[in-house]
Amino acid sequence: xxxxxxxxxxxxxxxSLHNVYRNRVHWHCTDDTSTTCVPCPSLTFTDEPNxxxxxxxxxxxxxxxxxxxxxxxxxSSDTVCGxxxxxxxxxxxxDCCTLAVQHSECSPGQYIKQAGxxxxxxxxxxxxxxxxxxxxxSSCLPHTKCEALGFTETNPGTHSSDTKCGNPSTAVAIxxxxxxxxxxxxxxxxxxxxxxxxxxxxxxxxxxQETGNVFCENESSKVVGSREIVEPSETEEHVLTxxx
Length: 244
Description:
The protein is of the alpha+beta class. The chain has helices at 14-21, 168-212, 234-243; strands at 23-27, 36-39, 44-45, 56-57, 67-71, 80-83, 87-93, 96-102, 110-114, 123-126, 131-132, 141-142, 152-155, 164-166, 216-217, 221-224, 227-230. The protein has 3 helices and 17 strands.
């Protein structure tokens, strides 16, 4: 005799059929008795009429496989797993994802052309022209124009980074400091030149003074310094003696 399913499907309405799906065989039918069914225990299920004495265990969504629970297990349906946030499914069984991997990340210099979904990976594209992206932008951004904002450009932009601008006051301070340092150096040079010239002039003056102090003598006079000393002759001495 053919073994009866738990509560033969043909004998029940849709509501009763739902009860059939979540039961298992407790006692098989005999010549004198019908099949006895009992509900599936917790964390088990049956999703179709059956002659099983044990229900199926609920699927566990393993995070190490990139999975999370999309729909919890019931006595009449298995767990439905889906990919974790920023993951996409690469293996499926019926409507349940069995393995997922993380979305690819765009590199600096690339933008996200198409964001990843639960079933597709991220699509990246390269920046072109005077634009940039750090890899997380949905489109490449134009480089900042420092001059238009009243700043000075310190570093040019690349496809992976924006232009870097400097504060105008900083640039002015740098120029002013450079000018001050240059002036100080020039003044120091002039000071040493002036000191050297002055010392040279003093040396020449000292030489002239020593020459003027030389005593010049002849038979009738002596020159001392710039004054001439005249010595009296013998005749003048005789006249002076007679007079006295």
